[in-house]
Design goal:
By secondary structure, this protein is of the alpha+beta class. It has a single domain, classed as Peptide Deformylase. It contains three helices and seven strands. The strands form two sheets. A five-stranded antiparallel beta sheet has the order 1-2-3-6-7, sandwiched between helices. A two-stranded antiparallel ribbon has the order 4-5. Strand 2 and strand 3 form a beta hairpin. The longest helix is centred in the C-terminal third of the chain and has 23 residues. The radius of gyration is 16 Å and the shape is globular. The two termini are 30 Å apart. The protein binds nickel (II) ion. The site of nickel (II) ion has 5 residues, from helix 2.
Length: 170
């Protein structure tokens, strides 16, 4: 089931998510809905908080890497910082370049049965892991930008939202 995605500046995006403790059918349904919602929006990653569920769950599907479900994830940096053009389904219509993402990580997470697993992420997938983990702490990628870039991207974003709001009320 496709669920509505919260958009910045919705304050619910700024609330931290709690660790998952129960691995049941409701969690499976949540993850199914997250994949449906991410595919519908043509995204490569989605955190549960973006559909208003404050649990540390994210789904990802980046390039040729396998589909991933990350529950209570954490990561260890193994690489260097890189430049990465990022966007976010909760800040739709704009993108900008972050300079703080690490290009290689070892990721630990639980699967849908609560079993721990690890994988190494590189490049765009590594950026996506950091982006989704930030969502779980109430952070957005625009927080990673320099002050000037953040102002500029938010101006573009607010203009797009005003124009869309205008069209909807026509
Ligand atoms: Ni995002």
């Amino acid at each position: 089931m496709i669920r509505p995605i919260l958009a910045h500046p919705d304050p619910r995006l700024r609330e931290p998510s709690l660790p998952v403790q129960t691995f049941d059918d409701a969690l499976r349904k949540l993850v199914d809905d997250m994949f449906d919602t991410m595919h519908h929006a043509e995204g490569i990653g989605l955190a549960a908080v973006q559909i208003g569920v404050h649990l540390r769950v994210a789904v990802m599907e980046v390039e040729d890497n396998p589909q991933r479900v990350m529950i209570n994830p954490s990561f260890e940096p193994l690489g260097e910082t890189m430049d990465m053009v990022e966007g976010c389904l909760s800040v739709p219509g704009v993108q900008d370049r972050t300079k703080t993402r690490i290009d290689h990580l070892r990721v630990q997470a639980l699967d849908l049965d609560g079993k721990p697993y690890t994988f190494e992420a590189h490049g765009l997938e590594a950026a996506c892991v950091q982006h989704e983990c930030d969502h779980m702490d109430g952070k957005l990628y625009i927080d990673c930008l320099s002050h000037v870039r953040r102002q500029r991207v938010l101006q573009r974003y607010n203009r797009i939202r005003r124009e869309e709001g205008g069209r909807q009320s026509d």
